[in-house]
């Protein structure tokens, strides 16, 4: 919904879009279940319209969270499991979604047990109409972009602190385009992007912070492709100083670690077991969580496989 809001009803350039979001988590205050706390995931375990991040009692059992031995499962009598140091009712399954913690991608989020990009939106940052060139398969853990066009796929689920893993593979000998991932997506005007070019002279991996006054437009697309920061569109946060490009038919594992509390972000890229690209821990002042996705410009036959997400509780 956030995306449609931004694309179909662009906000005039004169209005600071952040005035609508006091806590800058991408949720409009009127719809935000914690308007003073950045909680992009909007979790509300007991469905009382007070988000977990600002609800003192997330399970409505009258034991406040800080004293509750199962804060997401109603257990008024607080029976303790001595072996686990938690309440009996949540000793193996903290959020009560019937997936044990060790198998649960987000053990403190009952709405999320495994990543699934089956539900998503697609948009073109250049503002052109989107075409159905994307396919999602493998229970939402594999995404393929078949044709060469400029578009971004964004999963519907928003995350706060998270580790996002994907293996990117160009299944072709053709093309010199850009491949990458998107994170902290709040709207088509506010997101982060990791882009990796193949061709020189501007090859190499770059991480950008998008804060666009226009949203999808030729200006935004040009700014994303620009080797410099472009005011009112996109800032470069980090560039790989080694300027490595990617190769056809080679698998690269991307690991993004995102901390919404400390606003730290980090990317590592592996080829086999070699850590070929490693950013330092970057401070990203506006990172407050958001949705995850994939990007490719001027490149077809791109595969994102082994998609995996782990919520981090820091
Ligand atoms: Ca909020
Ligand atoms: Ca609540
Ligand atoms: Ca409670
Ligand atoms: Ca669980």
From TrEMBL:
Molecular function GO terms recorded: calcium ion binding
Q: Which domain of life is it from?
A: Eukaryota
GO cellular component, as recorded: extracellular region
Q: Name one Pfam family in it.
A: TSP_3
Q: Which UniProt keywords apply?
A: Calcium, EGF-like domain, Signal
> Which GO biological process entries does UniProt record here?
cell adhesion
Q: What name goes with this protein?
A: Cartilage oligomeric matrix
PANTHER family per record: THROMBOSPONDIN (PTHR10199), THROMBOSPONDIN, ISOFORM A (PTHR10199:SF100)
Q: Which SUPFAM superfamilies match?
A: Concanavalin A-like lectins/glucanases, TSP type-3 repeat
